[in-house]
Amino acid sequence: MEYKMYSEVFEQPDxxxxxxxxxxxxxxxxxxxxxxxxxxxxxxxxxSLSTAYTAKNALEMVTDLDIxxxxxYEFYYNKKLDNENSAVIFTSQSGETxxxxxxxxxxxxxxxxxxxxxNKKDSSMIKEAKYPxxxxxxxxxxxLGTKTYVTQLSAxxxxxxxxSDYEKSDELxxxxxxxxxxxxxxxxxxxEENKKLAYELKDEEIFYAMGSGPNFGLAYKLAxxxxxxxxxxxxxxxxxxxFRHGLIERAEKDVPIIILDSDYPSDEITQKAIxxxxxxxxKTLVFRMKDYSEINNLxxxxxxxxxxxxxxxxxxHYNGKDPGSTRHIGKVRYK
Length: 335
Known about the structure:
Elements: H1 4-10, H2 12-34, E1 39-43, H3 47-62, E2 67-70, H4 72-76, E3 86-92, H5 98-110, E4 113-118, H6 124-128, E5 131-134, H7 147-162, H8 169-177, H9 179-189, H10 191-200, E6 206-211, H11 214-230, E7 234-239, E8 256-261, H12 267-279, E9 283-288, H13 300-317
Parallel strand pairs: 1-2, 1-3, 3-4, 4-5, 6-7, 6-8, 8-9
């Protein structure tokens, strides 16, 4: 079993550590700039879009920041963009994603403050943004986006919460800095149980993924890039509160539904979905943050992503698939 994703899972903690070591002063300057703007746009595609959803939902739970999320071309073609004292943050693994790059050039034309978070220092997006942040992940080959995902998300949380009015921002930032150590422990401790879970569900062809608040972004990543791209399984993400508007009619005995629960206020509705699924004997896979860590639950996606990565890794493996390869995706990869 020589899949590149395996080693990249273990490289996540050091990728975060190195990024903070090399970029912290730069990120502090960017946070100061963000604290002066009236509106912030977050732009990404695939895994990068999922980090935007997570950051937006986390910040809107506890701050007054005005944040919008767009995919690249949705931003590019939008006619109602506010270019008066606004900033836009672009996230991209390669820094060459065509639609995100087009959106960056559009923002520069409009005179909006542009910030790029990318893993390639000589990429177009790093060169063309006014304020670049380079994640220090080294080369990433697996399509799922493991170390680049958590490092992008770390950078977003740092610059946005540092710029916010969240009363516990200093405490959250301190806990964010502890994530690499927690992550290293979880990588070692959660592999075997999720390997077994993957074996039990290897013959399933469709998975639903649900989460509330910041966990919706992780559910989006889980469905769109991890299960569909990595394990080649049909999947669909949704906010947990939307379970009763559609999915409830397809939730049947033995249908696998992955539910993320972090005890957010909105997870009151998540628990109702869990209760319903268990009552009718859905294959309910509940990943609860409290089972892994007691840090601020706004940081839940950093924690829950680790057992989910192992689950998807072995789900692909037991179906004879390389979880890091692609069939049709034409996105730019590192050479």
